[in-house]
Amino acid sequence: MSSFTILTSDGGLTVCGYVLCAAGIPALLLGAGTMSGSRRHRLSVRQLVFCGTAMALSFVTSCIKVFSLPYGGSVTLFSMLFICLTGYWYGLGTGMLTGLAYGILQFLQEPYVLSPFQVCCDYILAFAGLGLAGAFTRQTDGLRKGYLLGITVRGAFHALGGYLYWMDYMPENFPQSISRLYPIVYNYSFILAEGVLTLAVVSLPPVRNALGQIRRLAAE
Predict the structure, then answer these.
(1) In whole angstroms, how far apart are CA 159 and each of 73, 137, 155, 156, 198?
(2) 127 in Cβ contact with 102 (< 8 Å)
(3) Residues 97-123: what's their mean pLDDT?
(4) How far, in Å, CA of 32 to CA of 93, rounded?
(5) Chain segment 36-93, per-residue pLDDT in tens
(6) DSSP states of 93-145
(7) How many CB atoms lie within 10 A of CB 71?
(8) Alpha-carbon gap, residue 100 to 91, rounded angstroms
(9) For 92, which of 32, 133, 166, 173 could close a Cys bridge (C-beta 3.0–4.6 Å)?
């Protein structure tokens, strides 16, 4: 059991931990390509423009916060939606690469560093996970299904980092009967709050029609 531990006694990574950290992103991206079933190709200029614009909009709207939590995380002006859109437009691989780049940008803007693996969980893997919205790109109502998957996976990586590194930050007044659920409650509180607001907005007919038109432009 001890030979497979990923953490040292002082919260750092073991050799196994570094291997998992280094392999996690390529494995995730390889899985994305396999699941998408699409041919590998270079991004066109149009795709680069749309992905770059979506990432810029996500970054700008992430700065418009409805409320923020003390140890990171906030309800923003639909910032997660724009990363999910890239997956919905172009598939898993492109969406996850855009999310990965956005996660690095978020880290540079507002870094919380407890360990390398925590950074991977909270920034790299969490935001790359938003690109999983591309799993439903060819399905009816695929955007909403993909968005739900993307934010669920983002929350899961944040919660994993929470269990490994943030449990000591649990408030004393948090109910002890559910203390083991603290990372899940903390992280999904802001993710699901923004998710509900976002899904309500994208369900409005004018917004849904506008997003459909943008998708057709992105695919041209």
Answers:
(1) 12, 26, 6, 5, 21
(2) yes
(3) 88
(4) 5
(5) 444 455 668 888 889 999 999 999 999 899 988 887 789 999 999 999 999 999 999 8
(6) HHHHHHHHHHHHHHHHHS---S-HHHHIIIIIIHHHGGGGGGGGTTSTTHHHH
(7) 13
(8) 14
(9) 32
